[in-house]
Fold:
Amino acid sequence: MPYQRGHIPQSIDETVEMLASGNYLAGRSLATVLFLSLRMKRPLFLEGEAGVGKTEIAKVLSAALDRPLIRLQCYEGLDISSAVYEWNYPAQMLEIRLAEAAGTTDRSRIEADIFSERHLIRRPVLQALSSSNGRPPVFLIDELDRTDEAFEAFLLEVLSDFQVTVPELGTIRAAEPPIVIITTNRTREVHDALKRRCLYHWVDYPAAAQELEIIRRKVPGCNETLSRQVVAYVQNLRGLDLFKNPGVAETIDWATALTELDRVALDPETVSDTLGTLLKYQDDIARIDGAEGRKLLEDVKVGLAAAG
Structure:
């Protein structure tokens, strides 16, 4: 039976179909761990280089399951007020002023009013735990490695029991756990205590055939010859000792840029003019924008010609 949109897949094959419905081509190992994550209601921890499609998995999952996507973009210095909740202080002050004007002197009543749910601003973590319609959201914790260890430790309660404690209100528990996807670019190691609460998968660069199919789907206007050359060039480029290898996102950007320029094949001048869509560091661009880059292009064309 083909995958039905909005339903949790019932097999690994259905999981592959679900991802393919969002133009995400997944290997069986990724589909397997995602299927198990959904069935076991365990967070999925995705690790890999930037640009290999980790975040896209959460987006495709949200669309395929018809669930809202709640994204917590992590960064250095992220704290609870930005990630979990904070109080609407202006509204609380107004509430106090109105109580004073009305002559209210009952302190406990005033506190109950100002620390009520209507003055609570729910940030991504609390939003993800507050679903009440029986269809919990997809909760994306993106680039967790950018936060500090203190915030990572805070997440242990969230991922263990799917609850957070608001001192003024008490403990808020999820009626049903959200579908949690955690990504990291491995700029630092995430603590084992958090990883143990998740299923794990390393998202690698795709093989040439898979990357070519991605270009065909994501950039349908790209000439077939150009698509093959772009993929072969990028695949060979990743074999060099660059500061930052281009990810799939950069391959798509490059193919799109070349299509916008009405190119049907790669040539040294075009490669030189458009390297900024593929490489993001000047040292890498300077290295490829020369004899090494021209040789790489020649090797690509010879290889493709030999392959027929």
Notes: The CA atoms of residues 89 and 282 lie 46 Å apart.
